[in-house]
Design brief:
The protein has 250 residues and is mainly alpha-helical. The chain is built from 10 helices and 3 strands, in the order ααβααββαααααα. The C terminus is likely disordered.
């Protein structure tokens, strides 16, 4: 059997300025982040657009990566200030774009060089300084993330489906933390809004009453915008409605 070799032609092609492409060549991007970054380029510059709405399922199909890895990669690219992500009201998915001003990209190479120079001056002092700095950063990050967890907990209570007492926040915190690793906070809040709208609507059949823990563990993926819950749970759809059930407050 004669094998047929791939023979891609130059058209259609991705049009990008040589200056921006040179900047990308000089910039280090880890493997998973690079895959996601390249796909954003494909979906934007590949179609002569500055921005494009891209769903997680599109990232999955294009890269072969799993959703948690894609979410991590997107967060990493955002922290490097190499991409921008916009949530528009008329889009169900996030809109992605490349930040063309490469001077704003996080200067990773310079930071590494600077760290080596500082450590060479006085190893002992710098070990102490590094330890204190790392400890402070970890503490700041922990405080920031915990505030996000509390915001999610409070937002859930504002939906008034099952309201949990403040003293029970710690019971729900592990589930919130797990969900935040998989989804952006905007996606989680949108999912809660979608759940509230479906639960209170006469046009939808879904009447399953979840606690926050159960919602995050069992219902979150069903109510993110990407799953289109406002249409999927409409009465008369082909989906089978779950049994009605209520839970006591935790």
């Amino acid at each position: 059997m004669v094998s047929i070799m791939a023979n891609p032609q130059p058209k259609p092609y991705i049009q990008m300025s040589s200056e921006l492409f040179d900047a990308i060549i000089r910039y280090r991007i880890p493997g998973e982040q690079r895959q996601v970054f390249d796909f954003i380029i494909r979906k934007t510059y590949g179609f002569h657009k500055k921005q494009d709405a891209i769903s997680l399922s599109q990232f999955v199909e294009a890269t072969g990566m799993k959703k948690p890895a894609i979410v991590r990669a997107i967060k990493g690219l955002l922290s490097k200030k190499i991409i921008c992500v916009i949530k528009k009201d008329n889009y169900l998915t996030h809109v992605y774009g490349i930040i063309k001003d490469y001077d704003k990209w996080e200067p990773l190479t310079k930071k590494i060089t600077l760290t080596k120079k500082i450590m060479a001056v006085d190893k002992k002092d710098n070990e102490s300084l590094s330890f204190l700095s790392t400890t402070k950063e970890k503490k700041d990050n922990t405080t920031k993330e915990r505030k996000i967890y509390i915001d999610i907990f409070d937002f859930w209570n504002s939906a008034k489906i099952v309201v949990h007492k403040e003293k029970h926040f710690k019971i729900h915190e592990p589930a919130i933390k797990k969900a935040y690793k998989l989804y952006e906070i905007e996606d989680i809040l949108d999912a809660i809004c979608n759940y509230k709208e479906v639960y209170n609507s006469e046009l939808h059949y879904f009447s399953h009453k979840w606690t926050l823990i159960d919602f995050l563990n069992r219902g979150l993926s069903k109510f993110v915008n990407e799953s289109d819950p406002l249409n999927n749970f409409k009465k008369g759809s082909t989906s089978t409605p779950p049994p009605s059930q209520t839970y006591q407050d935790l």
